[in-house]
Write a structure and sequence with these properties.
The complex is a heterodimer of chains A (252) and B (225). With 252 residues, chain A is an alpha/beta fold. Chain A is built from ten helices and ten strands. Chain A is globular. The relative contact order of chain A is 0.18. Chain B contains six helices and no strands. The chains are: A alpha/beta (252), B mainly alpha (225). The interface between A and B is medium-sized, with 13 and 11 residues.
Chain lengths: 252, 225
Amino acid sequence: MGSKISISKLDFFYGTNQALFDVNLEIPEREVMAFIGPSGCGKSTFLRTLNRMNDTIPIAKVSGNVLIDGKDIYAPKTDVVALRRKVGMVFQKSNPFPKSIYENVAYGIRINRMHANKSDLDERVEKALKDSALWGEVKDRLNTSAFGLSGGQQQRLCIARALAVQPEVILMDEPASALDPIATQKIEELVVELKKDYTIAIVTHNMQQAARVSDKTAFFMLGKLIEVNPTQVMFTNPEDKLTEDYITGRFG
Amino acid sequence: MERIIDSQLDVLRDKLLLLGGTTEKAVHNSMKSLVERDNDLAHKVIKDDKIINKMELEIDQLSIEILALQQPAAYDLRFVISVAKITPVLERIADHAANIAEAAIVLNNEPEVRNYVDFPKMAEIAGEMLQSALDAFTSEDADLSREIIKRDREIDKIYNKVFGELIEMMIDNPETTTGAAHLLFVAKHLERIGDYVKDICELNVYLTEAAFIKHKKLKKVKSKK
């Protein structure tokens, strides 16, 4: 597979504090790449550079290149709203809108005027809920509040909301860390299923989760990308001593 | 701070080395019982094989527990896998030692059919290989492991020589057939022990370099370094 995202010489600063140092990385299309590393290593910051979520932080400064499909997303003329539609994001804590299940998914479709008419909107909502493996559980209660769903269901609703606007890349920041093992398993199965159609980048503190769902794993430490390799290599024979020490729990 | 897994891996290592040492002794004693015509020692080797079987089960159990509860990765994972794969190999070597002891009991009741000159040599090489293989495991020495693998040829060479001689002996003196047939088995057991030591060495290389050298011609297997 070719690269969906190419990152080169990426530096990132919070004010005078440098959080990422010269990151160079290729994220292949329709694969899952996991980002692991100790707290504060920059993996979430890095993830957020991929759809310019860090733009919302006034003191943030970025240099280097992030190309998606060959286009520099930090170029001055970039439509950031379109970028975030193309590069969707799911967060650690599910954050449904205080609306019905249906409206949560329909919202992005509506504001982007992606639907032709009401029945088209219905179809898009249904497809997004099916793709996020939630449809069977909510089809009879679409007009009830999203807050009535369990934590795992809310998280899958957030994934449905991201899918509804037809992204190409999905960024996930600890999407299962607040969920029980069964809900976690569903999210993981969903990640594996979704990579048929999407490029997925996932930040996780759960090493076994990275091992289970990802094709490649990238290890960050102190703002530097230490190693990226196929996941089976990372977990059986990592190249770098620091990676070895981290995944075997010699420090943390 | 020591990791929880460290103390368990230490126990696993100790258990494997104890099994290795006990197996070495079984091989040594089985040959001694044959050469010195010592039935008591042969019976002891056969009896002690049960202890070795028990050790194998303990290591299996601990390996499974570590895999399930500690979910080891990288070197830790390779260590547990290597131990879990070396263990049944040692147990089989011990089985061969017990089989040699059984043959010794039969042979000791027959008139001495042959001067056992080549057998102690074979057993000596096999014993040295086994000892070195366990040393190479402890010191994680892949190069030493590769050297030990090469020594298996020495055993094979003696085996072929012994095999020819015993066949000749049976043809020339048919009354030696029973004894010679048992000695053929002893030779085969020793030859197999050499093969099993090779397996251990291959796993040593896997542990150290994460490389599978099994089923590859040795000359193609180059060290990473």
